[in-house]
Amino acid sequence: MKKFSLAIFTAFSMAAFGQKVSDYQYISLPDTFTTFKGESYGLKELLTKTLTGKNYTVIPADKLQWPAEAKDNPCNVLMGDIINDSGFLRNKVVFQFKDCNDKVISSVKGASNIKDYKEGYQDALKQTYASISPASPVPQARIQLQTVQQTQAVASQPVAVNSSEAGTSAIRYSNGKADFQKVQVDDSQFILVGSNSSSPYATFKATTKKDVFRVKLQNGDTTLGYYENGNIIIEIPLGNGNYGKEVFSAK
After folding, report:
1. How far apart are CA 225 and CA 193, in angstroms?
2. Which end of the chain is more exposed for a tag (fewer CB within 10 A), N or C?
3. Are 224 and 213 in contact (CB under 8 A)?
4. How many Å separate Cα 248 from the centre of its chain?
């Protein structure tokens, strides 16, 4: 039973990483696009109008202003960004989408020969629009079906683990409130999944320092995690510039 559960969680991760832009309803856009040095040339307004016309719901970067559905599951939200990629003779942009794990799922380049910055950047952005399919959010039932289908394909395969976990089918942890399973996604990444959840509580990616990880929390926050005395530690942002420590002890 334990192996079957791990297969479900691994399959969910695979299904999530395989999603397309059109699978999402919500697109979050920043107040300003940082690579344009404070001048956005009307790009946000133009992009918002276009995305809305393709049936997406555009929401601000401030998560406190998100609708309840997006707050409850921030991994249903894509982060949109426009990057200034201009050269000497042409105005060029890169239109990019990232998911809640900071993974780029779409990146399209557009270019214009118009030398005026505002007209040129807007013209370059318009070149990317053909790549954006209208929103067709994946219903929860379809997500569950994808998960089951993926599970059937991988249920008989062992979950990849690192050398310190060799010979074990799973490592279980507890933070004193709930139980979690550690699932090794690849050599440099693992996730903690709650026993009653179908999405990762936290995703850990290796840094250049041994046993220290960049962590993406389920609510979209990013922080650090590390091993300490056999436990997994996550530094939890408290919202006032301070951090608390959440300890996950092996069971």
Report:
1. 15
2. N
3. yes
4. 23
Nearest to 83 by CA among 61, 111, 114, 57: 111
Contact between residue 31 and residue 61 where contact means Cβ atoms under 8 Å apart: yes
**Per-residue buried b or exposed e for 176-211, using 16+ beta carbons within 10 Å of the residue's own CB:** eeeebbbbbbeeebbbbbbeeebbbbbbbbeeeeee
pTM of the model: 0.52
**Which residues are registered as beta bridge partners of 67?**
none
Position 240 pLDDT exceeds 80? no
Reference 83, options 92, 75, 94; nearest CA is 94
Cβ 173 vs Cβ 250: under 8 Å: yes
User: In sequence order, what E strands does the chain have?
Assistant: 26-29, 57-60, 77-84, 91-98, 104-112, 171-174, 179-186, 189-194, 202-206, 212-217, 222-228, 231-237, 243-250
